[in-house]
Amino acid sequence: MKTFYITTAIDYVNGSPHLGHAYEKVLTDVIARFRRMMGDEVYFLTGTDEHGQKIQQSARARGVEPQAFVDQIAPEFQQLCARLGISNDDFIRTTEPRHQRVVSQLLQQLFDKGEIYRAEYQGYYSTRQEQFLQEKDRNEDGTWPEIFGEVTQITESNYFFKLGAYQQWLIDHIKSHPDFIFPRYRAKQVLEFLSEPLNDLCISRPKDRLAWGIPLPFDPDFVTYVWFDALTNYYSAVADKPGLWPASFHVIGKDILVPPHAVYWPIMLQACGLAAPQSILAHGWWSINGAKMSKSTGNFVDPIEFVDQFGVDALRYFLIREMSVGQDSDFSMEQFLVRYNSELANNLGNLVNRTLNMTNRFADASIPSPGELGEAEKSLQQAWSQTREEVLPLFEKFQFNMGLEKALQFVTATNAYIEQRAPWKLGKSEAPADQALLRTSLATMAEALRLGATLLQAVTPGSVDKIRGVLGYTATADWPSELNWDYRLSGNPVAKECILFPRPEKKP
Ligand code: MSP
Q1: Phi and psi of 99, rounded to 5°?
Q2: Dihedral of the CA atoms 463, 468, 471, 473 (nearest 10)?
Q3: Counting Cβ atoms within 10 Å, is residue 139 exposed (0-12), middle (13-18) or buried (19+)?
Q4: Nearest by Cα to 237 from 425, 374, 385, 103
Q5: What is the distance between the alpha carbons of residues 147 and 126, in angstroms, rounded to a whole number?
Q6: Distance 453 CA to ligand 1 centre (A)
Q7: Smallest Cα–Cα separation from 398: which of 6, 2, 11, 18?
Q8: Ligand 1 in contact with 368 (CB < 6 A)?
Q9: How far is the CA of 142 from the centre of ligand 1 (A)?
Q10: Ligand 1 centre and the CA of 496: distance in Å?
Q11: Tell me: the pLDDT tens digits for 136-179?
């Protein structure tokens, strides 16, 4: 079985991490955890993109050397991973020697094969985007769109990679590999881009204009241009680990699908004699309160502050529940609080509280064995079979938002079951039939809670561990069999109480 090798984009370290960075890591983590739970061997890579003009400029603005600057910011991204409970196996920084070595090797190999050549280049250059622009990039009135920042005309000698030579190969590859790009409709966008002749890719910058990069091994007066350096991280991190390449999934935002990941990267690999990644998953973008996130206008969510305030699982749950993978979504405190209160605190949290509370009151804090099952139990069990059958395929297809919705519907059904059985009434009766039904209902609610929680494991792993802990349960490593309804908790001691999702202290 091939290792499921999954990566995120590597983040620029010219500023602190934001919600978009957090989302991508959480989404990738949920996929990685789910694949591990399904029995795959998983290798999960994330990291930071530390070279280039923007970083050189940000360092200069702070009056420090670029290396000192990136050494200050990169740990913030590593801490973000830790705070978000990201289960990455490795974290690569493009300033590490292990990365630079592989970039140099690949460049030399392509140069030796004649895939890289030197030529004069004249064009309009955007410093902000670190790219030469084309006439078609202009606004209708001839000006340059704001995203390019200051645009200047420059001529310089540079090195080029023969991208154009691989255009037909890439078109064929995309057409014959329908799973190469997810969601599938985005493949159209790539093919559209490929319907125009591909220009060769400028892969260098003269050192006197950009010093902060990896030197070209065949001409030390130049450094590599951002994409050749950055994309190679996916391979450099595992080049010495047999069995990992090609990557199973590159998870990235929609802005860097075309051309970098869907065009440059597969062609670079093909030219080097390496296999293309199996799949590229392009997710949508978050806006905040309906507008683009921006630190300067204050329309910004600091993921770490958010976790400090609401807990990591509340953020993970919201990000995954709210966004349909591939589509854009909006983040607002109102919407967050609606989901937090109605789905986490009042639904799941309430089920935990009731289960503990009643098991303490009526069964000496020990989960009873069930007696004969009545209609209510059978129908809840039926609801569970259906939930399990529906949720797994949704998770397989990255439709986590819908899978979570169904998992939470099962939690709602369990709360409704409790209302129907009303153990607090049964507890007042001494009739043996009522006592038997009381035991069955306590056993059933604990079992349903265990099962519902199991479905949430990839998304809210910490809370699921807590729930198991208060039910006196340690899960096996066989996740699919954890989904079997078998009353395995009978006789377990339960905790007195557990507040999983406390009421927010203040409304921010
Ligand atoms: N360094 C490049 C990627 C190189 S990958 C070989 C880069 N860095 S980035 O920091 O600008 O973005 C990192 C990731 O965060 C990208 O996948 C990007 O799409 C994602 N996001 C940035 N802002 C985002 C939102 N507002 N919403 C969701 N994801 C967003 O690009």
Answers
A1: -80, -50
A2: -170
A3: exposed
A4: 103
A5: 9
A6: 31
A7: 6
A8: no
A9: 29
A10: 44
A11: 899 999 999 998 999 999 898 999 999 999 999 999 999 999 99
Tell me the CA–centroid distance for residue 28 and ligand 1, in Å: 13
Tell me the best of 14, 92, 256, 269 to mutate to test the pocket of ligand 1, counting ligand atoms within 8 Å of each CB and taking the most: 256
Which residue reads 């989404």 in tokens? Answer: 27
Instruction: Indicate which residue's Cα is closest to atom 8 of ligand 1.
Output: 11
126 sits in which H/E element: strand 116-126
The residue whose two tokens read 């009056």 is: 63
- Angstrom CA distances, 199 to 214, 342, 396, stand at 23, 53, 37
Q: Given ligand 1 and candidates 252, 264, 295, 301, which is best to mutate, with the most ligand atoms within 8 Å of its CB?
A: 252
100/216 Cα distance (integer angstroms) = 10
- Any idea where the domains of the chain sit in the sequence? 333-482
Residue 160, sorted as left (phi over 0), alpha (psi -120 to 50) or beta, turns out to be beta
Cβ–ligand 1 distance for 255 under 6 Å, the answer: yes
Let me know if domain 333-482 sits in CATH 2.160.20.80: no
Please report, for the chain, how many H helices and E strands are present, in that order.
19, 16
Q: Are 159 and 117 in contact (CB under 8 A)?
A: yes
Q: Determine the Cα angle at 184 with ends 178 and 186, to 5°.
A: 120
Q: In whole angstroms, what is the distance from residue 459 CA to residue 91 CA?
A: 21
Residues 68, 59 contacting (CB under 8 angstroms): yes
What is the tens place of the pLDDT at every residue in 265-298? 999 999 999 999 999 999 999 999 999 999 889 9
Residue 372 CB neighbour total at 10 angstroms: 8
What is the model's pLDDT at position 125? 87
Tracing tokens 């035991």 back to the chain, one arrives at 439
* Per-residue DSSP letter, 54: H
CB distance 237 to ligand 1 below 6 Å = no
Phi, psi of 42 (to 5 degrees): -120, 140
Return d(Cα 500, Cα 463) in angstroms, integer.
7
Q: Closest Cα to residue 236, out of 99, 96, 45?
A: 99
User: How many residues does this entry show for the chain?
Assistant: 508
Candidate of 8, 14, 18, 24 to mutate for ligand 1, largest count of ligand atoms within 8 Å of Cβ:
24
Q: Per residue in 347-391, pLDDT tens?
A: 999 999 999 999 999 999 999 999 999 999 999 999 999 999 999
Residues 6+ apart with CB under 8 A from 154: 122, 123, 125
Q: Please answer whether residues 212 and 223 qualify as being in contact, where contact means their C-beta atoms are separated by less than 8 angstroms.
A: yes
